[in-house]
Write a structure and sequence with these properties.
- It is built from five helices and five strands; from the N terminus they run ααβββββααα.
- The chain has one domain: Mannitol-specific EII, Chain A.
- Strands 1, 2, 3, 4 and 5 form a five-stranded mixed beta sheet that branches.
- 43% of the residues lie in helices and 23% in strands.
- The longest helix is centred in the C-terminal third of the chain and has 15 residues.
- It starts with a helix and ends in an 8-residue tail after the last helix.
- The chain is an alpha/beta fold.
- GO terms for molecular function: protein kinase activator activity.
């Protein structure tokens, strides 16, 4: 989580500690490990003005206390503004739907670089809600 927070901080300019603490507080409520080697850690930060999503594919799976007990090798970090409300939940649901599509996980795990991962995640994606 600390490494994920560090990467997110570098990309957003937000405080790494604030990101880490937000994610840690959410995990204390229950694991965001949703099964099949996937975790979707998420949280809201007052300093954000829009949603941010980050994908990480781990070389070595880690224990994440997922609902199916499987270690996690695909993480999708979602950060939202404090007042995101329903947008935050819609984004979580959308990420989960994309990752559950047939073949997506296999292609994601086989992707060799960031652009290939992006292509897998955006291929045939549903349009954004207005």
């Amino acid at each position: 989580m600390q490494e994920l927070a560090a990467h997110a901080a570098a990309l957003t300019g937000l405080d790494q500690h604030a990101i880490f603490e937000t994610l840690l507080q959410r995990e204390r409520l229950g694991s965001t490990g949703v099964g099949e080697g996937i975790a979707i850690p998420h949280g809201k930060l007052p300093s954000l003005d829009r949603l941010f999503g980050f994908v990480a594919r781990l070389e070595k799976p880690i224990d994440f206390d997922a609902i199916d007990g499987m270690p996690v090798d695909v993480l999708f970090l979602l950060l939202a503004p404090e007042g995101a409300g329903a947008d935050h939940l819609k984004a979580l649901a959308r990420v989960a739907r994309v990752l559950r599509r047939p073949g997506v996980l296999e292609r994601l795990r086989a992707a060799h670089d960031a652009s290939a991962i992006y292509a897998v995640l955006t291929e045939n994606s549903e349009p954004a809600a207005a």
